[in-house]
């Protein structure tokens, strides 16, 4: 693994060589991922994985033509051949007036923000094994647990360096620690499975392994003996661990490439009120130790905190330079890319601001509804906004959680769901997309 300074120098040297070879413009992205993971099952070691891979991608522009080539061989001779191959491909590529480097005047200048993404402490495989065993043992200790899919612990490090021919060079690193457990409760055809996990940039921010395991076991046992539910229209409450998927659909619908392709159900809703005025959704790339924090985007533009939804109103699209140019707008610092292709778009750390009601208050008054803890399948049409997914969870009766339910389908229109969404006050930052408990009235529930 190259150091950050070595990686940045290597990317810059590749760009400089491309320019000398005849490229009108170029950028180079270096990515290295290294990880160690241990998994156990039924108290015994099952697998140890250790991997490290580094790759560099070069994008070359010749007029309005461009091409991208990547390689894992970082030796100087191999990189020279990479330049020649990429340049030849660019000269034969079709013209694309929207494929450009980011605007030079908008590039990140000066010192990047300090995001505290790197944990200096190393964790050896023995410690990972102990953590994995602790998590699985705690899950299996819950009465009613009859089998295990295993437990695991991991750590990893990612390093990224980007250089462009018009003046940007930057790099950053991030570490990640994780623990998980997955177990089964019950017997035969009535068995139920559930899991728990947690990931954090720093080890000391990671949930206790025993707590993770017990949570997995308790979740599995709670799902035993599910009952049928009569179909109907009713309120649905989304648990925070799956409610973030709704925000994910919003992000996909406001991504610049979806708008330029006219494949978004929100195509004509820029500046429209989509949610209740009490709903604000933030994108915060500068959260300290955030799982998607980053000092600059995939094109070298600075990142910044912004409201995607401001008191219910859609504020704008998420744009890389290509989609921004096509729409006649400015890029927003949301470009995301790998080493083998042109930039796309992604959000960073996203959350819904908490509401004023507790989860209990949000549930009170519901005579009959569903508390959803798991979603199944991908029945979402991003062109029309039609939403239909398999689900499981618990019946709500007279304002309280009742027995488990499974094999149900919940359906609606995403725009109508957004408009009806009510967030509770229990926001916690655990994932890349964080939401409090969410209530949506008027959804169609089909029983099994």
From TrEMBL:
GO terms for cellular component: cytosol. Residues 231-447 form the Metalloprotease TldD/E C-terminal domain. SUPFAM superfamilies: Putative modulator of DNA gyrase, PmbA/TldD. One of its GO terms (biological process) is proteolysis. Residues 337-349 have a biased composition (Polar residues). Belongs to the peptidase U62 family. This is PmbA protein. It comes from Sphingobium jiangsuense.
């Amino acid at each position: 693994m190259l150091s950050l300074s070595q990686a940045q120098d290597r990317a810059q040297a590749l760009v400089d060589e491309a320019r000398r070879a005849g490229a009108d413009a170029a950028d180079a992205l270096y990515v290295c991922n290294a990880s160690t993971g241990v998994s156990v099952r039924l108290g015994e070691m099952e697998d140890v994985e250790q991997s490290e891979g580094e790759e560099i991608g070069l994008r070359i522009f010749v007029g309005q033509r461009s091409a991208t080539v990547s390689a894992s061989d970082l030796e100087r001779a191999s990189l020279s051949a990479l330049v020649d191959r990429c340049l030849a491909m660019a000269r034969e590529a079709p013209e694309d007036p929207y494929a450009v480097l980011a605007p030079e005047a908008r590039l990140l200048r000066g010192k990047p923000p300090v995001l505290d993404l790197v944990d200096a402490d190393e964790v050896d495989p023995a410690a990972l094994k102990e953590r994995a065993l602790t998590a699985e043992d705690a899950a299996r200790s819950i009465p009613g647990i009859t089998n295990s899919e295993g437990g695991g612990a991991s750590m990893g490090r990612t390093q990224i360096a980007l250089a462009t021919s018009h003046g940007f060079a930057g790099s950053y690193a991030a570490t990640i620690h994780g623990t998980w457990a997955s177990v089964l409760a019950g017997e035969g055809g009535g068995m139920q499975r559930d899991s728990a996990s947690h990931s954090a940039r720093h080890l000391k921010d990671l949930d206790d392994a025993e707590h993770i395991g017990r949570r997995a076991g308790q979740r599995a046992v709670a799902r035993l003996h599910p009952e049928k539910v009569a179909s109907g229209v009713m309120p649905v409450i989304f648990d925070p661990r799956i409610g973030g998927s709704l925000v994910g659909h919003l992000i996909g619908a406001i991504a610049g490439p979806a708008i330029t392709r006219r494949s978004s159900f929100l195509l004509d809703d820029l500046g429209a009120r989509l949610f209740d005025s009490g709903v604000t959704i933030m994108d915060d790339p500068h959260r300290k130790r955030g799982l998607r924090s980053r000092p600059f985007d995939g094109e070298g533009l600075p990142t910044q905190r912004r409201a995607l939804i401001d008191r219910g109103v859609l504020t704008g699209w998420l744009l890389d330079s290509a989609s921004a140019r096509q729409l006649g707008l400015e890029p927003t610092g949301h470009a995301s890319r790998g080493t083998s292709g042109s930039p796309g778009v992604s959000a960073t750390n996203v959350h819904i601001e908490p509401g004023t009601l507790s989860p209990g208050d949000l549930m009170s008054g519901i005579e009959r509804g569903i508390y959803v803890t798991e979603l199944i399948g991908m029945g979402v049409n991003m062109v029309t906004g039609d939403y239909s997914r398999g689900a499981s969870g618990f019946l709500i009766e007279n304002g309280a959680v009742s027995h488990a339910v499974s094999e149900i389908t919940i359906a609606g229109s995403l725009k109508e769901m957004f408009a009806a969404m009510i967030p509770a006050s229990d926001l916690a930052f655990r994932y890349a997309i964080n939401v409090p408990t969410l209530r949506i009235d008027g959804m169609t529930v089909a029983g099994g």
